[in-house]
Every structure is written in structure tokens, then in C-alpha cells.
TrEMBL record:
It comes from Halorarum salinum. This is tRNA (cytidine(56)-2'-O)-methyltransferase. The keyword Methyltransferase applies. It catalyses: cytidine(56) in tRNA + S-adenosyl-L-methionine = 2'-O-methylcytidine(56) in tRNA + S-adenosyl-L-homocysteine + H(+). The keyword tRNA processing applies. Its EC number is 2.1.1.206. It is an enzyme of class 2 (transferase). It is found in: Cytoplasm.
Length: 198
């Protein structure tokens, strides 16, 4: 989102093989729903590559970073830290406070994969729950970002995309950017299941 301060998502922990798809989806969800950057553990290179590839094709701006010092990164964060956890305070109760804090500075949103150490709960400015039921980091992140941005992220414009999906009631149309909506050809412009790949 083009907020005055950055919104960054940190994926804490990654088990290569087992978590590849979830870590990729954390990054893609962060990008699609208004964050400016995702920070992944340095063993998640394959996920980083996929997210960068989608950004190259479908647009940005969106940054992907790999770091081996996630604890130091969160500890040194100069802004507000939100940790998404089923044990936290209901998002609907704290979203206003989080938004107000974000109006004054950058926001780091931490989502777990493997078990999140308890110091995260203590260090976070907000431990936020999207329901107090166990589910997924991708679902939690999506609902949280939509609440944070109050739906404005759905209207976002994308820069430097080389393709764009044309919304249709039925069918699939992807056009190279610059083409008129109704034109044929392009990346899957005939309504077939070509192009995209996301
Ligand atoms: C599948 S859970 C596993 C958590 C792990 N068992 C633990 O104890 O930390 C992975 C991540 O999903 C997110 N998550 C799961 N349920 C959530 C909820 N109800 N609200 C917010 N985030 C949630 C949290 O960020 C959590 O770290």
C-alpha cells in the first residue's frame, strides 16, 4: 500500500520442503494485500525466487529479502511490531490502535511457521488474533492486512507489470500491459489458461 510508512511482513522460521508452499504464499499474500516487503529466513531461497518472479510479471513495488538474523531484525525494528497468534487479542478490538501506531511509523507483522519462541510474545507491541482458533499464517495475514488497510489495498494500482488480468464474469484473460482490455492475443488473451501461472 502506498502508506506514508512501510508495512513489512516477517516470516519467522521455515522448514525447507515442508514449508515451501506456505512460505511462498505468505510472501504472495503480503504482496497482493498491500505490504511493501516480506522478510524470509535465509533458507527460504526457493520461495523468495517465486515471489520475485511473480512481482516481475505482475508488478510492484514489492521487495523480498532473505535474512539469517531474524531475531536481531525484529529486536532492532524501529516502529511497531504486531505478532499474529491465535493466543492474542482479537483483531477487531485492536485494529484501530494498530492503525494509529502505523500512522506514526513503520509496521512489522510477524507470522510463524514452526513454534514461535515466547520472547516474541513479550517483545511484540501487539499480539493479535484473527479469531482465537488455530488456522494458518496465510489466512491470518490476509484478514489482518485487510483490516489494517480497511479494504483500500483491493484498489491498488501495480507498477512495472508486464501482464495484467482482465476481470471477467467467466473465463480467463491476461493481457500484456498497454493492450486494450478487449484485445485478443497477448499473454493468454484468447481466454485460454495460458499466461499467469500464479
Ligand atoms: C499453523 S500456526 C503454528 C503455530 C505454532 N504451533 C506455535 O505454537 O507457534 C503458524 C502461524 O499461523 C498464525 N496463526 C495461526 N492461527 C492464528 C490465529 N487464529 N490468529 C492469528 N494468527 C494465527 C501464527 O502466526 C502462527 O505462528
Amino acid at each position: 500500500m502506498q502508506e506514508s510508512h512501510g508495512t513489512v511482513v516477517l516470516r519467522y522460521g521455515h522448514r525447507p520442503g515442508r514449508d515451501d508452499r506456505m512460505t511462498t504464499h505468505v510472501g504472495l499474500t503480503a504482496r497482493a494485500l498491500g505490504a511493501d516487503r516480506v522478510v524470509l529466513p535465509d533458507n527460504a531461497g526457493q520461495s523468495a525466487e517465486t515471489i520475485r518472479d511473480i512481482t516481475d510479471r505482475f508488478g510492484g513495488p514489492f521487495a523480498v529479502e532473505l535474512r539469517d538474523d531474524q531475531r536481531a531484525f525484529t529486536g532492532g525494528w524501529d516502529g511497531t511490531v504486531v505478532h499474529l497468534t491465535m493466543y492474542g487479542e482479537p483483531v477487531q478490538d485492536v485494529e484501530g490502535e494498530v492503525r494509529a501506531a502505523h500512522a506514526d511509523g513503520p509496521l512489522l507483522v510477524v507470522v510463524g511457521g514452526e513454534k514461535v519462541p515466547f520472547d516474541f510474545y513479550e517483545e511484540a507491541d501487539f499480539n493479535v488474533a484473527v479469531t482465537n482458533q488455530p488456522h494458518s499464517e496465510v489466512a491470518g495475514l490476509a484478514v489482518f492486512l485487510d483490516r489494517l488497510f480497511e479494504g483500500r489495498e483491493l484498489e491498488r494500482e501495480w507498477a512495472d507489470a508486464d501482464r495484467r488480468v482482465v476481470p471477467m464474469e467467466t473465463g480467463k484473460r491476461v493481457v500484456e500491459t498497454g493492450e486494450a482490455d478487449g484485445s485478443d492475443g497477448g499473454a493468454g488473451g484468447d481466454g485460454s489458461d495460458r499466461g499467469g501461472g500464479a
